[in-house]
């Protein structure tokens, strides 16, 4: 097995354990045991738990960052862009639900430049989303609600979607997108 593939396997196993137990409670020995290898063997492919966490979180952060850039570049209306953001979150959730637990719960364990990069990407993402919301209000596409309340409401739902999605079973992604967009944009009344 080549190094990249083995590293990806290590990250995937660690992601599952981080979701189950939390980053602090998982040791390299736990990861190795789950993989059926000796802990020392892990170090042939990865420098340690911090590298695993960084790989996992920064990979997802980059997916969100590039997804947001694609939304911004799409040229749609603010309402179209918000719909695209919601759908992007759903796609990432469906494809990376275990890793989202680390992103949401363990990002604060990142160190040095990795932490700075993650925080910057997250702040930029939220700033871009905020601008889309404000533009939607200015153009009359959205009701004149406080942009921070709208941002918080949508992101809180989307950031915890991975918890709900895994409990509910694998709901059809197209139904999830259609109904989630409708509920978040139109409400339930």
Automatic annotation (TrEMBL):
Keywords carried by this UniProt record: DNA-binding
The entry's DNA-binding region feature spans 27-46
What region holds the HTH tetR-type domain?
4-64
What InterPro entries does the record point to? Answer: Homeodomain-like_sf (IPR009057), HTH-type_Tx_Regulator (IPR050624), HTH_TetR (IPR001647), KstR2_TetR_C (IPR041490), Tet_transcr_reg_TetR-rel_C_sf (IPR036271)
Q: Which domain of life is it from?
A: Bacteria
* GO MF terms held by the record: DNA binding
Q: Which Gene3D superfamilies match?
A: Homeodomain-like (1.10.10.60), Tetracycline Repressor, domain 2 (1.10.357.10)
What protein name is recorded for this chain? Answer: TetR/AcrR family transcriptional regulator
